[in-house]
TrEMBL record, chains A, B:
This is UspA domain-containing protein. PANTHER family: ADENINE NUCLEOTIDE ALPHA HYDROLASES-LIKE SUPERFAMILY PROTEIN. One of its GO terms (molecular function) is AMP binding. Signal peptide: none annotated. Residues 24-162 form the UspA domain.
Length: 175, 175
């Protein structure tokens, strides 16, 4: 049972409360769970693949005060987005590096649930770990959940890690 | 990251084609997957908890030629069922023993999906592994799936392992 390490893909996103570069509570929870419950001391037996999907900022809400006068401005905007995403991934990569677990990390743009399933198909991890806010059925209707979609559609086994009660913010939609 | 081993519950059942004591294709698949992809060489880091749920034989179809004349007969029947279940569990326990992974195994009677979720609540494993026949949506309506119920209702993370295409019998409802 040596051979190639088990490749675990983790979908990670930024905190909706604190914003970039902070990882969401559920992403951090899923990451720590994977290290403690799966990887344990067998650091050479696993490789973690971190995928961060950025949702395109269609209405430009975050940049209401910006003026776009040239193609260069848009390019700068895209670079800024990218830099934010890289800062998020840095947290996970640094932690892996510190404990000696091999990893890769990358950013994609699009609808998170669609992109995650697409990347699973492309990268073919042994399984996928997704954090989840653990919303009730009522909240789920409006918020939708990436994890439920991945459980149904990803072409690999999927494990969903819920936040624990004490980690849940007052408004459970926050993370 | 030493300490207590990670406790993985596996729900296992008998083959619908070959019957007891043969394990279903999906149970064996889920078990082998857990050993190869999670446990790997770290045999002391994990403990496997095998739960086999026996469905009560309400219509007595398997025993149409039997005559029940006394309470003793029923007791014998129950003992026979139990023996069959133990033979099934023996397969998993022996394999664990051979490779040096700690384990426990037990039998419960009832509706598998309800009993599995109840046992998760009682035993509190770190996560649950369930095999799955990978039925299409049309077959699912009539067959129902234990795995889908557990993903929704079990009070721990759940990972569903599908049979691979080459392991699927001609009739995918068989296993």
């Amino acid at each position: 049972m040596g051979g190639e390490p088990t490749r675990i893909m983790l979908a990670v996103n930024e905190s909706t409360i604190k914003g970039y570069p902070h990882a969401s509570i559920s992403s951090r929870k899923a990451f720590e769970w994977t290290l403690h419950k799966i990887v344990r001391s067998n650091t050479s037996g696993f490789k973690l693949l971190f995928l961060h999907v950025q949702v395109p900022d269609e209405d430009g809400f975050d940049d209401m005060d910006s003026v776009y006068a040239s193609p260069e401005d848009f390019k700068n905007l895209r670079n800024r987005d990218r830099a934010k995403g890289l800062h998020l991934l840095e947290f996970f990569v640094e932690r892996c590096h510190a404990i000696g677990v091999g990893c890769e990390a990358w950013i994609k743009k699009g609808d998170p649930k669609e992109v995650i399933c697409h990347e699973v198909k492309r990268v073919q991890p042994d399984f996928l770990v997704v954090g989840c806010r653990g919303l009730g059925p009522f909240q789920r209707v409006f918020v939708g959940t990436v994890s439920e979609f991945c459980v149904k559609h990803a072409e690999c086994p999927v494990i969903t890690i819920k936040r624990s009660a004490e980690e849940t913010p007052q408004d459970p939609v926050d993370d």
